Amino acid sequence: MDSLIVAAARALSLGDPLAALKRVGLREDAPSLALRGIAMAQLGDVARARALLRSAARAFGSREPVARARCVVAEAEIALVSRDLGWAMDALDGARAVLEASGDRVNAAHARYLGARRLLLIGQLDEAERRLDGLDAGALRPSSRAGCWLVAAGIAMRRVRTKPARAALDRAARAAREAGIPALIAEVERTVRAFEAPAARLVSRDRERLLGLGAVEALLASDALIVDACRNVARRGSDRVSLASRPVLFALLRALAEAWPGDAPRETLLRRAFGARHADDSHRARLRVEIARLREEIGPLAGLTATKRGFALQPVATETVAVLAPPVESDHAQVLALLADGEAWSSSALALALGVSPRTVQRALDALAGAGKVESFGRGRARRWTAPQIPGFPTSLLLPASTFNR
Question: What are 357-364's contacts with CB under 8 Å, separation 24+?
Fold first, then answer.
């Protein structure tokens, strides 16, 4: 390997991309293209960096599969940092297999960590956890090890498991200090603050109070009937009914749970479910229909009885009803919860993470931008969205999770 390539690689390892570019900035051979790509990534020009790494991978070709695989891994890392989540995992998995076969444990482990991190961002916790289980954390560089433990902490927080989350955050903090990278240390500190912040509000008929993640975990482990307004589910122990796709039914259930052990007046139910300020016969007829649907949906967990004023919730096999709500409620709260990580997201990545259509996300972003809660930069496919100030506490309970509290 020629001396300029070695010197450029050493400069990049020390975080000096300009020094690296002075040595290989005008060269078009494969190793130089790869180093130029990494340098541009360190300078923040991710579009140029990805183009250079793709060119390097093509230039290495099939004759140098390990070098090409490293380019694929580097491009995947840049995509993750820029919150471009639309890329296929097959390419990264293929690169990891090549690296493992060649004995490159460090980059193979890094590729596995990147895959787990992408899966966490889009809420596929089971698959993310499986990838971490097969990862040799000792083979990672300290910076990647810190990121790996942050992924483990993120999985535990979304599943409301406080002890594993705390242990993973402690390991992430140690690895970040060992790496000595200020941005990484700040990311760990930001995650610790999110872990320690109130995760939910406990709402009852008479009062409200904030709960930490540990208190939420204890409540979920109890035999109480919990109406969870963060995930739009009702649950008691391992029994759960999701109403995520039935907003009217969930609005009715929440109003009934907040009124428990009393009843909820029909006027309140009409206002909460339909936004009706003045009820007429058609509203009352619709309320009867929706109450019947709700009774059928939550039958295993609770019954509904009619009263003189309205309806009352009758929990089954428990004498406690709790309503969990986000610390601060806001329209499009899930979008804000994702943007709370401080990174710049594309609308397509937000749609993928939330499992909704790009049009739905775009409407949410437009509404949040109109309210001054998010900002964008760039144009077209390069447009990115950030939230400079997240109102209240960005609870992890609002983040996507394919399974909840398993």
Answer: 361/335, 364/331, 364/332, 364/335
